[in-house]
Amino acid sequence: MSQQKVICSDCQQLKPCKARGLCEACYTKQRRTANPERAREIYKRANIKRKEWQRAYNKQYREAHKEDIYAYIKNYVAENRARVNAYGRAWCQRNPVKCRARHKNWKNKNRERWLNYQATYQRARAVNLKIKSVEVIDRLQVYERDQGICGICKESVSRSDFTIDHIIPLSKDGIHAYSNVQTAHSLCNSKKGAKIC
Description:
Blueprint: E1 5-7, E2 14-19, E3 22-23, H1 24-34, H2 36-64, H3 66-79, H4 81-94, H5 96-109, H6 111-128, H7 139-145, E4 162-166, E5 181-185, H8 186-192
Antiparallel strand pairs: 1-2, 2-3, 4-5
Helix pairs in contact: 1-2, 4-5
């Protein structure tokens, strides 16, 4: 059934009549103006329903297109490395507590990867300090060579909690090589710092 077209008493245009001689848009506007609390409540309920629907739709879409999304993210990060890193640094500055918790959680879940990153950092540091000899050191090989004994306090070290210590620190012209590294507790290594024992 088609609505009768009349000239709206508010906007003065020829449109289908909703009620009281008003078009749909003017009628809705008048009701919102007359009952702002009710209009807000209706909008809020509709917004909640829309958000729930959107969440469910997004979840379903992500599950159906996992590989595509992962490939897109990987490609985006590869093409925009500087931008992604800058965003991450800015986020960490805004949220230092969350950032520390996130790093700690990642470190606990990926212990071996973190230790390998540490070893890579030591090599890079050695190169930056212009140290003559820089070897690629396998942490587990050093641990097995030292039979799991801390080179500083001479007590046993667990496999999950050991660090690599430079006997002669890199800052004191030590070399990054098997002959200059030893197994150590992380606490012992921190206490020793850049001293020669």
